[in-house]
């Protein structure tokens, strides 16, 4: 187990007595050698590893025995047990399918479980785990087939072995919800009159007022002229008045004109 101290022994025999040694090139753990000779024909050497590291898991330790006649060797593999750790948990990435990529390390190999909204994900054709083993590494994807906005949310990976359990969460965003699409957002802007239309109602009202005023003034002026002509006009030698003028300015003017004609 990681952090423990381990001692391994190698015994070599032959005639003449062989030299025996361990090859430790590339070993990460602290190590010491202790050689013992057992006469007449056994040479033993002990290798002690202190605070053994997970980085030495699956390391091949080789013992070599050699004399003038020949050489031989024997190997053992270190199996270092340690609790799982999640090294990588990426956001969803579009590939052939959509993938949440992960890398987990642990020995014995951890068991993986996925959770979505506090519930364990049941593997099916649309959501499944694809992974490969390499020594004490597990690498793979939580694979989605055609995910939608319904699948948005937090995804939690749990890795566990007899030495411990670890979790890590990533937010998965696949598609924007329909009511959040930009094309559906309509901004209501009050319409404003254009420069050509601004002020036109005031201008029309002012023009109508001038026209009405001028028409009223003209009617009054004509009425006064009519009265003056009828009052001071000379009679002809036949005893008839000079031709007068008639002005039809509304109903009141027409009634006065009828009264004058009736006096002729």
UniProtKB/TrEMBL annotation:
Entry annotated with the keyword Nucleotide-binding: no
Main location: membrane
Transmembrane segments: 206-229
Superkingdom of this protein's organism: Eukaryota
One MF term in the entry's GO annotations: transmembrane receptor protein tyrosine kinase activity
GO biological process, one term: cell surface receptor protein tyrosine kinase signaling pathway
Signal peptide from the UniProt entry: none
This protein's UniProt keywords: Disulfide bond, Glycoprotein, Immunoglobulin domain, Membrane, Transmembrane, Transmembrane helix
Annotated membrane topology: Single-pass type I membrane protein
Pfam families cross-referenced by the UniProt entry: I-set, Ig_3
Compartments, as annotated in UniProt: Membrane
Keyword Kinase in record: no
Ranges where the Ig-like domain occurs: 1-81
A GO cellular component annotation in the UniProt record: cell-cell junction
Protein name (database record): Ig-like domain-containing protein
